[in-house]
What we know:
The complex is a heterodimer. By secondary structure, chain A is an alpha+beta fold. Helix content of chain A is about 15%, strand content about 40%. Chain A has three domains: about 1-150, 2-Layer Sandwich (Beta-Lactamase); about 180-270 and about 380-415, Immunoglobulin-like (Sandwich), CATH 2.60.40; about 275-380, Immunoglobulin-like (Sandwich). Chain B is α+β, with helices and mostly antiparallel strands. Chain B has a five-stranded antiparallel sheet with strand order 1-2-3-6-5, with no helix packed on it. A five-stranded antiparallel sheet of chain B has the order 9-13-12-11-10, sandwiched between helices. The relative contact order of chain B is 0.04. Chain A: Its main location: membrane.
Amino acid sequence: MIHSLFLINCSGDIFLEKHWKSVVSQSVCDYFFEAQEKAVDVENVPPVISTPHHYLISIYRDKIFFVSVIQTEVPPLFVIEFLHRVADTFQDYFGECSETAIKDNVVIVYELLEEMLDNGFPLATESNILKELIKPPTILRSVVNSITGSSNVGETLPTGQLSNIPWRRAGVKYTNNEAYFDVIEEIDAIIDKSGSTVFAEIQGVIDSCIKLSGMPDLSLSFMNPRLLDDVSFHPCIRFKRWESERVLSFIPPDGNFRLISYRVSSQNLVAIPVYVKHMISFKENSSSGRFDVTIGPKQNMGKTVEGVVMTVHMPKAVLNMNLTASQGSYTFDPVTKVLTWDVGKITPQKLPNLKGIVNLQSGAPKPEENPSLNIQFKIQQLAISGLKVNRLDMYGEKYKPFKGVKYLTKAGKFQVRT
Amino acid sequence: MLNLISAVAAAGGAAAVGPPETHCKTGTKMTDSKYFTTTKKGEIFELKAELNSDKKEKKKEAVKKVIASMTVGKDVSALFPDVVNCMQTDNLELKKLVYLYLMNYAKSQPDMAIMAVNTFVKDCEDPNPLIRALAVRTMGCIRVDKITEYLCEPLRKCLKDEDPYVRKTAAVCVAKLHDINAQLVEDQGFLDTLKDLISDSNPMVVANAVAALSEIAESHPSSNLLDLNPQSINKLLTALNECTEWGQIFILDCLANYMPKDDREAQSICERVTPRLSHANSAVVLSAVKVLMKFMEMLSKDLDYYGTLLKKLAPPLVTLLSAEPELQYVALRNINLIVQKRPEILKHEMKVFFVKYNDPIYVKLEKLDIMIRLASQANIAQVLAELKEYATEVDVDFVRKAVRAIGRCAIKVEQSAERCVSTLLDLIQTKVNYVVQEAIVVIKDIFRKYPNKYESVIATLCENLDSLDEPEARAAMIWIVGEYAERIDNADELLESFLEGFHDESTQVQLQLLTAIVKLFLKKPTETQELVQQVLSLATQDSDNPDLRDRGYIYWRLLSTDPVAAKEVVLAEKPLISEETDLIEPTLLDELICYIGTLASVYHKPPSAFVEGSRGVVHKSLPPRTGSSESAESPDAAPAGVQPSEQPAVIPTQGDLLGDLLNLDLGPPVSGPPIAASSVQMGAVDLLGGGLDSLMGGTGFAAPSTVVPANLGAPLGSGLGDLFDLTGGVGTLSGSYVAPKSVWLPAMKAKGLEISGTFSRQVGSISMDLLLTNKALQVMSDFAIQFNRNSFGLAPAAPLQVHTPLAPNQSVEISLPLNTVGSVMKMDPLNNLQVAVKNNIDVFYFSTLYPLHILFVEDGKMERQMFLATWKDIPNENEAQFQIKECPLSADAVSNKLQGSNIFTIAKRNVEGQDMLYQSLKLTNGIWVLAELRIQPGNSSFTDLELSLKCRAPEVSQHIYQAYETILKN
């Protein structure tokens, strides 16, 4: 099981370590640093590294490496999932998962890590339970604590831990009972030079914010549940009910959580909401090139495409870019060679265009590779797959909750090859 | 600051609390830094006073200060008694802090730590289950031997606590204790209690018990801790639905080790595991995939359910690819295995493996690999378009692999070869140096696969000769020039240009250049004589490399003695290269499938090959398919004395294989008259030596002449014994029971060679009767056989003589005489025999079990007096009792039947209507076995025989019993 955990920042300092069994020397991280050096880019450090006596399994989140040390044959996915859960918990507790936040709350961090693993076995990882055991820091509470001397450690046994619904705490009470669902879909796509779709799929999630008193039993139904054939569920969902009736039936955790995530991949179902016209060329034997990109709306179901941002990794030989944007603003970082064009909203009447001259290093050969265009955008009030919530019913409690559903479509990894 | 932090972390150990930035935090923002204010002298004294204060608040603040000091590496162990005093408190936080202190200092102050024991014992009986659980949890973390003993009682209580929260914490504590003192845990019977917890009513307790047992089992591979049966499986499946995600992973991993008894049970488990595929936690999903992939093996392919399951497996695997990159990587490594085992699952999902330019490099490379595995005629156009796109990316490693992938596609999908070649030519035109080099390397392979088809591109390749600077590319180009020398007008000039810097080239290039020039000479002898002489002298006289020198001399000899033969050798037709060179070997793949989701699946190596210490070489294997057409291939009748489950197995893993090879005794087996045989033996050894040698990297092959004498000493005695056996056993000409032949090495595992066989003993000589069948399309010849060391020193007494080459679809029956003078090594099971068979194609390995009765010698009849004395002499612990069921034979019939196999009846008595037979037998290595056989004559309803065996080496009893059963029942 998980033996130890080291947190390492980008400059290679180990700023926190925690051992659940015996102490493993920090020097084990040298193997990690070696791999990091080899990988050049921080993103490219391999997640599983073997050393003579241990295995290092790491994740990279928010500019911090979470490096865990294991000694026996353990499922690596188990470790990786757990590490992400640790990072999520820090995020949840401190509002951000950063080196400063962790250092400022080091005692809570230790208390959390102590509760999350026992001898390397996961103990309590549900945020609902953890928050009962260890109260999250607030400025008010720490002031109060320091005056009254009360602690941020819970006094009682977290009730949820033993029930059949470990994700929900007992005795929840709200004056306003609310249930919100956000249907968020991301389009992952690769568009080739000619504008045809090489690959496209929708990654959808339903994120929920449930603030309901007591033990509500909810069922959520869809207009078109047949769209959902590849779904991952939160443990609270009754699988049998979904199998037989295609209804999501569950007793929800308290607060924010991800209800389901799903994937829609049949090519014909995935609408591509924008198109890109591009002309990027470099002249042979001259140190310049031309750049001309226009973005326009396509299959957007009558909604506005907004928050459009285009990023391009230009070839290494590019020295500078001299462009004019018909709309929005652009920046070019000559060090990383990244061109960013913040377009904003697309109005069909006047399509946004960015064009101009690319300056190359003199004497450098004409770049071989063509840059890919990475596009981000947002469409409010639309789930591009067409998924629609039909109704939400509540059983088990008497009050009438306030219900809301929001839809949002975003670009995920949306790439246009040139 | 940073130095300080690392110092803290190093010193703090398990309970380290690192100091946040002390300099910038003041009262306005309440962070933990306030506990790190600098201290004056006499601080310990101050703290002591505060710890003993009456005010609770002051006490708690003091403990916090102590903990903070501890984590910055200050020695506050002097406060031990005072801190331990604070342990008895109702305040949970204070208690937790004291526990932190204890975990840190207990090890350095074992004597004082005992003071804390009392509180632990008390806390374990606290009415609050949270406190009980906390106490039992902390106890396990105090790694002090002296204390552990005191903790057994509280732990025992907690394991049976009424509160499941306490029970599940206690279960983990057993694993902790086992880590500190394994013997203690066993002696105290905690393992049994833990096993009982598997049937606990609370699913979380079940999950933790499984987790703890799995961890303990890993350090005790043979302990059989997780002995699963249908009842416990049912309990696990029930708990699976209700426990936390982590618990589900433990349970699924445990389920994967279970072997269902039939396909129906396998299906029902699969049905109950399938819902886990929709879990949000990817580790749960992958563990479920492992269970399904393993149990699917048992399902018949014609079953509707089989098809449904295949369909259900695809979406969750694809979903894993939309997770974080680290998860993707592990998922892809596993998918790589899955597509090799069952390509049908993901054959329609090619597109999800298309690479995005901002994927991390480790994800890109894996995706590429899987794309090639999935490439087929149906999707090749798409794949090629993608690969061409990748070949213009920025990342050099990735581009190289993409170019190589194009070549692999050409070799894999014949219809696409032409398109691949033209794509490669396009890429060569880009003149990007590393792209050109990779392209040339793969084109060489394409030439090998499709000879005389694409040679028109050679001209283009030659244009790029100068830009090649990597050895592999240069070697490939030289090979091409040499191979097609007759079509390249200036081949001699090209090769000559390489020759200039001969000594600066790498060995690979040098060897290739030598061969290419010799080829050129054989093709155009007139104009290249000078060149070939030059290269031969460079290779033989000026080189330090033995490989190069040897090859040079061989060519030189060949060319000078017999140019015609040289032509036949050097320009021989080359065998076609295989479709996919990088597939994982099937037996290894099957084993790896059992390890889906583990580190083994990431490294594509069995755990025994890399897990530290490789404590248990427990090989997992896929369950045999039942009820399907494939079972027809497996033998119905297992060899005598072999349980049906132990079918002949090809020796499994690579790791193992190497070990076995090194163990193989290469010394020649010595037969009756050793001198006469030795010349023949040498031949056999040579044959094998050639094959094995290359596998072993040229080590371990001792010259036969040195080995013979070493083996001579010992066997002589028993060789004489054998002679006596001959005379002694004249009366029993009929020989012992011979089991029907069964398949030992199936054709599919040995490139078309099928071997079935059995063992027999006749007139004092043992023989292995083999039936070799050639199911391949090519003629097989040059057979040889060798045994690994085994328990009774069985070894071939003569070489395996197959006089004529074996044509396709032909079989030959051979009786190979064996002796028992080979080297001895105890095997498990005792009668296991590992065999290596070589032919002109390859060397194959299999293992089989021989029936022990072939080792019963003919002078195994003991004197009556001797028998009585020996029976008394052998201690009673060595007596083993067995039952031979349903054997309706009379005492005389039994006696006669056994006599045929050299089990001799010494006396017969009738006691209370039962016949008692007293028997003896002797094994080839001189071990005597005495037997008492109880028969109830004339009782048709009770036909079981009772057998008691006494022997000084009790481990053989089980096998003797099997021999009895085999002889009596046939």
